[in-house]
Design goal:
The complex is a heterotrimer of chains A (923), B (174) and C (205). With 923 residues, chain A is an alpha+beta fold. The N and C termini of chain A lie far apart (69 Å). Chain B has 174 residues and is α/β, with parallel strands linked by helices. In chain B, helix 2 crosses helix 5. Chain B is globular. Chain B starts with a strand and ends with a strand. In chain C, helix 2 runs antiparallel to helix 8 and helix 6 runs antiparallel to helix 8. Chain C is built from eight helices and four strands, in the order H-H-H-E-E-E-E-H-H-H-H-H. Classes of the chains: A alpha+beta (923), B alpha/beta (174), C mainly alpha (205). At the A-B interface, helix 2, helix 4 and helix 21 of A face helix 2, helix 3, helix 4 and helix 5 of B. Chain C: Keywords: Signal. Chain C: InterPro entries: Multihaem_cyt_sf. Chain C: This is Isoquinoline 1-oxidoreductase subunit. Chain C: It comes from Bradyrhizobium hipponense.
Chain lengths: 923, 174, 205
């Protein structure tokens, strides 16, 4: 049973354009959705026995799956021929852009269409705020950043496109005039996080962001950096109050106090590229004259993508304004954050809008992906830490972070706050003051990337802690243990975590591990090689504070299960995690798992308003009176939310099917009347080998239960929406004579073979708007040990052995958790030792960067047979899954830097530490 | 333009006229619609575009397709990811990749699959001692980039296929 | 916005001299020339003249186009800044790469411009004893005269090897994004010839 494909569901509208995220009904050929629904009914499903992923067969057989696999002739109903576009970008951001010179293109090499800033003015496009700035740099202006687009060239045939891209690849046809220097623009956000704990842990904080809200200094002068002083004129009162506490902390750190060890250190991180293997691409077709705009895209944020496209064209002039936008989303070939909120999709749409009637493909090659793709923020950090020498207890911490956000705002402000609130790592520090600012620069735009600011600041703190332990002559693990935040301790924003905090356990594992135990003997064993051991332990948030998911689960009369989810499969195994989580309720693994689906939930009739991050309580209270209102409809697959959030709605939908479909069916088959006390013991039933079992009763196979549920008109399908702001929304629904309570805020059910019907919630409790003052309440922990060997003569570094220990609650697909950990290790090694991009001239914005010049970790860079990963068992059998895809990367980086110090005696304070730098300090 | 005929996964294609500067990658993906062979870097750095080339003497090698003109494959016989399964039955290595959760996003999978398959066939002709196995696998796969997995599960999958049929792939040691 | 042929929409068409194949052309124009053997005629002493001619030839021999594949170790380098070759390949038994990564898997019979991939039918690494990486022209000179380290060649054989060998000749036609070796292959060959005929003296190391 597939969801209805009523064309162009008016699910949301912007500027009079209806936006559907549905799929065109098609009589002939496999519709796009069929390619993306895995493994498909009747096909081999490796996940059934836990022996593979639901997308396993598709991925080893080269099935069409990724956005880059589709051409117009793969899509039913589309014209057969694909046209191709080149997105031309500026490779200079300090001179006036004067235009492009295509004189070298003759005959067939001439583009059919050239789209420039003037065309967009005529069309009347508008750039979404997230991508503020000119979509194309107009002649006469200095480009806002390196890699800013200046034009789209569209070619009707592949051959002319292919030959032209060769003719234009030197970039010299993009012309510049007089030198202006880079464009100056305001910063993207500046914040101060200050906390002063009470006299004892039980006492309330003297000051915290949770109590007082998040604060920013007022922009006072036209200078590159904010003025942080509370004494500055016109500072808002709330800012001045925090800043006074902050300055007091800094004064204490600066005071001449012999009892306090104070370290004042800088640390600097570099720009890197997510380097997902599938470069960004998209396919679009505009029928013209106010008709339909169809797109095939691959992003981590499908709903945002559709929303941005609607905004882009909402005020377009008549022939360019589509009546409908139908966006379809594919599996993605890696994301790592770099496909969350990407402006690339806007240019895919523009290519189609400007070449009506013809499907157009826009695809980056790798040079272009380096030139235009989202990067990780470089951060300059200065940290001061004060530790009581007698007890080894950390008393105070102050830091200043300056992030380079590159050319567009994107997520820079959020990355700055996540970086800041992560800055004290696993530690319990009573006095903290951190300022953070994300600056505009002419660099390529930085945005979301695995680790999201926390990677940078956690590396700095773990390197600093290592140094402090050395100064105090304390064992680094013992020092960490003394200062680790306990289960109910307060984070820097003043709230405790609401999930398990297992730092002590992780530190114990690290301490007992042979790599740590044998560190001294290995260090002294070698002569031509320096050997060193490093440790690090971190905690990393997961979730973004306004996360949601949509899930739809259908159970056929034959017991076959289909799942639809709005989250995206980017390799993280969400499809398999969905199947497993639903399977826990329904006793079988789904045959159809359809991800990145933002259609199929229309019956919920969801509406939203306001910004979930800034809404006030009164507005939220008023809005929630509408039973169809939710703070947000769909959010991106990012921030390690796949397991925790992405699967949540589908799991809750499955729970409803069990409770009101399979359980009543079981009672019938067991001939247990509703009055029997056993009728309420659904929680005692368990699935074993596809059979529902209860002590003393005959096991019942799922197909029999499903057939009974269908025959008797019990619940056989459910659609749910859930929302989390550091806590789930909870609601009650009147179902079959009872008030059903669940951690969802919208529900629809299907009885038997009927249609889905919405069940309006009878009451709802959304997490309070003040939760927006929390930095994070969800966190997971990971510790790492590495032993490195460095050749004295060459500086060549080999990782001899490594160990990583993590906790992530219940692992939905343990093999994927292991794989993510191994992959996080590899990316950590690349970040620490190999990867770097010059930020400005000579960097990727020039359009001449590729792999080879940019080094990511290969197999030969890694201890493939000497990496041990340990996953702690969940604290309780029902501990919910915790996000882990980011945290596993983080401790690898400081552990390596600490191991290098142990080996060489040199403490590196900037990344990456390349072999030539090592050679330099060993010379 | 040059006339091109070749055999792909046992099926003859051509003769057809192709531009001399058309890459093999674009020939497969744009002209034939065979998109199982991926495009990653266009510079022979990631090898997600690699295919198998079968020589007349029964040996095989992998070749990146992004840096080679299609016309260089005239008269050759190649295998792509679409051709490993026979009559719907997955190859041993395909099954091992699935069972080991070897890939995540899967974009590099076609390249690793081709390289691993060539290694298996090479070892079946020229077995190596058990103690050389891991390094042999590491050397064979090192040209291929994977950004998701950290490589370990790919290596384990190839190794386990070999160990499961050690008389075929390894020199017997007493 | 749809143009019917000429580019109505191009806002600016700067007057520009031939920019076709600009980078290749540009890199060629920036290539330093080689002095001719005749230009050393003013050096009276034959041995000094010979050494000076070799020093001129040294601009070629120490160029990354040459040293990248005459590496000091077993791994070639690449690019104008001579970074280590990626993917990581070593010379292997015959200088043509490893069993699982042969040179000609990527380096085909000729340069393939769309992939920026250099090529030649005999693409391979110079033998280990012919390592030039990091050496001065004087070092290379001594080495290149030594049959044990020059592939068993007589000095006269080097005239054709450097002046006519097509793999050597690739250094002057390296394709997009790579600076060619200085001068032309003919000029380099002429320098070798003049050097040999003047007694093949070496500059001070």
């Amino acid at each position: 049973m597939r969801p209805s494909r009523r064309a162009f569901v008016k699910w949301m509208t912007a500027g009079g354009i209806s936006v559907s995220l549905s799929h065109l009904a098609s009589a002939a050929g496999a519709p796009f959705a069929a390619h993306e629904t895995l493994p498909g009914r009747g096909k081999f499903n490796p996940a059934t026995k836990g022996a593979g992923r639901v997308d396993g067969v598709a991925k080893v057989t080269g099935a069409k799956l990724y956005a880059s696999d589709f051409r117009a002739n793969d899509l039913p109903g589309w014209p057969q021929t694909t046209s191709h576009a080149i997105l031309v970008r500026a490779n200079d951001a300090t001179h006036v852009y004067t235009g492009i010179d295509l004189a070298r293109l003759k005959g067939a090499l001439k583009p059919s269409v050239v789209v420039t800033a003037a065309d967009l003015d005529r069309i009347g496009t508008q750039a979404p705020e997230f991508y503020a700035g000119d979509l194309f740099c107009p002649p006469g202006k200095t480009p806002l950043y390196l890699g800013q687009p200046v034009a789209l060239l569209i070619f009707e045939t592949f051959d002319s496109f292919d030959q032209t891209r060769l003719a234009l690849r030197d970039g010299s046809f993009v012309k510049f005039g007089e030198e202006t220097g880079p464009v100056m623009a305001p910063d993207y956000g500046s914040y101060r996080f200050t906390r002063v704990a009470g006299p004892s842990p039980e006492k309330p904080d003297v000051y915290s962001p949770l109590q007082a809200g998040w604060i920013s200094p007022r922009k006072l002068q036209n200078a590159a950096l904010p003025v942080w002083s509370p004494l500055a004129k016109e500072m808002p009162a709330d800012y001045a109050r925090a800043a006074k506490h902050g300055e007091q902390i800094r004064a204490e750190l600066a005071a001449d106090d012999a009892s306090l060890l104070v370290l004042d250190r800088e640390f600097e991180t570099q720009s890197v590229d997510p380097m997902f293997l599938e470069p960004e691409c998209g396919l679009a077709w505009y029928s013209g004259k106010g008709g339909n705009l169809e797109l095939v895209l691959g992003v981590q944020s499908p709903y945002e993508a559709a929303d941005s496209l609607a905004f882009l064209l909402a005020k377009a002039a008549a022939p360019y304004k589509p009546a409908h936008i139908n966006a379809q989303f594919a599996h993605v070939g890696g994301g790592f954050g770099g496909r969350d909120h990407t402006p690339f999709i806007l240019y895919v749409a523009l290519a189609a809008i400007c070449f009506p009637g013809k499907p157009v493909r826009l695809a980056h090659d790798r040079y272009q992906q380096f030139q235009g793709g989202i990067k990780r923020h470089p951060i300059k950090m200065r940290s001061r830490i004060g530790i009581d020498r007698a007890t080894g207890i950390i008393k105070a911490f102050a830091a200043d972070h300056v992030l380079d956000g590159g050319g567009q705002a994107n997520f820079s402000a959020n990355v700055a706050t996540v970086a800041a609130t992560a800055a004290i790592g696993i530690y319990d520090i009573p006095k903290v003051d951190v300022t953070t600012v994300a600056l505009h620069s002419r660099g390529v735009t930085a945005g979301s990337m695995r680790g999201y600011g926390a990677l940078q600041t956690l590396t700095a703190i773990e390197v600093l802690i290592d140094e402090a332990a050395g100064e105090l002559k304390l064992d680094p693990i013992e020092f960490r243990r003394r200062n680790a935040l306990r289960q109910n301790g307060r984070t820097m924003t003043g709230n405790p975590y609401i999930v398990s905090v297992r730092t002590p356990e992780i530190l114990d594992r690290l301490e007992k591990h042979p790599i740590w135990q044998q560190r001294a003997q290995f260090k002294s064993a070698s002569s031509d090689r320096l050997v060193g051991t490093g440790v690090a332990c971190v905690t990393k948030d997961y979730g973004a504070g306004a996360d949601c998911s949509l899930g739809r689960v259908e159970l056929g009369a034959d017991g076959k299960i289909a799942i639809f989810c709005d989250h995206v499969e980017m390799g993280n195994g969400i499809g398999t995690a969905l199947a497993n989580r639903v399977g826990a309720h329904l006793g079988a693994i789904a045959d159809d798992v359809s991800i990145a689906r933002v259609d199929g939930y229309e019956i919920l009739g969801l509406v939203t308003s306001g910004d979930p991050y800034t809404i006030d309580q009164k507005t939220q209270d008023a809005a929630q009176r509408n039973p169809r209102w939710v703070p947000r409809i769909s959010s991106a697959t990012s921030a390690s939310v796949g397991a925790h959030v992405g699967t949540h709605s589908s799991a809750e939908a499955a729970r409803v099917i069990f409770r009101f479909g399979l359980w009543p069916a079981a009672l019938e088959l067991w001939r247990i009347p509703k009055t029997d006390s056993r009728a309420r013991r659904w929680a005692s039933a368990t699935w074993q080998n596809g059979q529902l079992t209860m002590p003393g009763l005959a096991p019942l196979a799922l197909p029999m239960l499903a057939a009974t549920a269908h025959a008797r008109g019990f619940v056989t399908g459910a659609i749910a929406h859930s929302f989390s702001r550091w806590a789930w929304s909870r609601a009650r629904f009147a179902l079959f004579g009872e008030q059903y309570r669940a951690e969802i805020d919208a529900l629809a059910i299907r009885r038997g073979n009927g249609r889905f019907e919405r069940i309006n919630r009878s009451s709802v409790k959304f997490p309070p708007s003040d939760n927006n003052r929390i930095g994070t309440a969800y966190t997971s922990m990971c510790g790492a040990l590495v032993r490195v060997e460095i050749e004295r003569a060459t500086g060549s570094l080999r990782i001899a052995k490594a160990y990583s220990v993590l906790e992530c609650g219940t692992a939905l697909v343990p093999e994927v958790v292991m794989g993510q950990s191994q992959g996080g290790f590899a990316m950590g090694v690349g970040y620490a030792l190999l990867e770097t991009l010059p930020p400005f001239e000579g960097g990727p914005g020039g359009g001449d960067w590729n792999l080879g010049r940019y080094l990511v970790a290969r197999g030969s860079d890694l201890p493939l047979r000497d990496l041990e990963i340990e996953m702690l068992k969940p604290l309780t059998p029902d501990e919910p899954p915790k996000g882990m895809a980011e945290v596993v990367m983080v401790p690898i980086v400081p552990a390596l830097i600490n191991a290098i110090f142990d080996a060489t005696g040199h403490r590196f304070r900037a990344l990456p530490v390349t072999s030539s730098l090592l050679k330099g300090v060993l010379a | 333009m040059t006339t091109l005929s070749l055999t792909i996964n046992g099926r003859k294609h051509g003769p057809m006229d192709v531009r001399d500067d058309l890459s093999m990658n674009d020939f497969l993906r744009e002209m034939l619609g065979m998109t199982g062979t991926k495009f990653g870097c266009g510079a022979a750095q990631c090898l997600s575009c690699a295919i198998i080339v079968d020589a007349p003497d029964g040996t095989s090698t992998t070749s990146p397709t992004c840096v080679a003109p299609a016309v260089n494959f005239h008269g050759k016989s190649i295998r792509t990811v679409e051709g490993h399964a026979k009559d719907g039955e997955l190859s041993v290595l395909q099954k091992a990749f699935i069972e080991h959760f070897a890939f995540q996003c899967g974009y590099c999978t076609a390249g690793f699959l081709g390289e691993g398959q060539v290694l298996l066939e090479r070892l079946s002709r020229n077995p190596v001692p058990r103690e050389a196995l891991e390094q042999t696998i590491a050397d064979a796969l090192d040209g291929h980039l994977c950004r998701c997995t950290g490589y370990i599960k790919y290596h384990e999958a190839v190794r386990d296929v070999i160990l499961a049929d050690s008389t075929r792939y390894l020199i017997a040691t007493k | 916005m749809i143009s019917d042929g000429p580019f109505k929409t191009i806002a600016v068409i700067a007057a520009l001299a031939s920019s076709l194949c600009a980078a290749y052309a540009a890199s060629e124009t920036t290539t330093p020339a080689l002095a001719s053997p005749e230009s050393f005629a003013n050096i009276g002493e034959t041995e000094k003249r010979s050494a000076a001619i070799f020093t001129e030839l040294g601009k070629v021999l120490t160029h990354p186009r040459c040293t990248n594949c005459h590496p000091a170790g077993d791994r070639p380098h690449q690019g104008d800044n001579a970074r280590l070759h990626q993917p990581p390949v070593t010379r292997g038994a015959d200088g043509h790469g490893l069993e699982a990564m042969r040179c000609n898997a990527c380096h085909q019979n000729a340069n393939f411009e769309p992939g920026r991939m250099p090529g030649h039918p005999d693409w391979h690494l110079a033998p280990r004893e012919m390592a030039w990486e990091g050496k001065t022209a004087g070092d290379i000179c001594e080495q290149i005269k030594d049959p044990a380290r020059n592939g068993g060649r007589k000095v006269e054989d080097l005239i054709d090897h450097i002046g006519k060998d097509t793999l050597v000749g690739w250094a002057w036609k390296p394709g997009f994004g790579r600076a060619p070796a200085p001068g032309t292959q003919e000029q380099a060959g002429a320098l070798v010839e003049a050097w040999a005929k003047t007694g093949a003296a070496c500059p001070a190391p």
